[in-house]
Specification:
Helix content: under 10%
Distance between the termini: 46 Å
Shape: elongated
């Protein structure tokens, strides 16, 4: 049985920009018989109990926008030979420049993910999410 709740708050200020706060709480519970028969005894802990995110974005003149995101994932246990995953934070940022007129979806952007550095996923030291930076170009027609 999976139970949970999720809430999101989206607040916009003409001066400060847009803030989106999200939080989810999830629990998995099984009866004793199911746990005794389970091939994966850790499945009740295979989902983070708490996840949260905060996104700030703001537009500036000349079609320039920036955003900063902070994401929290609580500890969990990966199934199928994965390691215990400790709780971690991740921080991302993006700076974009709209191309063309107001309302155009065309843009060039610079994004950095995992500003705080690398963190492990699934197996410690084997599968890592490294800091990465990239440029994207989006064109519509």
């Amino acid at each position: 049985r999976v139970r949970g709740a999720e809430v999101q708050l989206d607040w916009r200020s003409p001066v400060l920009g847009r803030f989106v706060l999200g939080y989810a709480h999830v629990r998995i519970k099984a009866d004793a018989e199911t746990l005794a028969e389970a091939a994966e005894p850790d499945f009740e802990e295979s989902v983070p109990m708490h996840t949260a995110s905060l996104l700030w974005s703001r537009g500036f003149g000349s079609g320039i926008t920036t955003s900063l995101g902070a994401y929290f994932v609580d500890d969990m246990k990966w199934l199928n030979d994965g390691d215990d995953q400790p709780a971690h934070w991740r921080y991302d940022m993006k700076v974009a420049k709209r191309l063309g007129k107001q309302g155009s979806s065309d843009e060039i952007a610079f994004t950095v993910q995992s500003l705080g550095g690398r963190y492990d996923q699934f197996r410690m030291g084997e599968y890592s999410f490294e800091r990465r930076a990239f440029v994207t170009l989006r064109l519509g027609w």
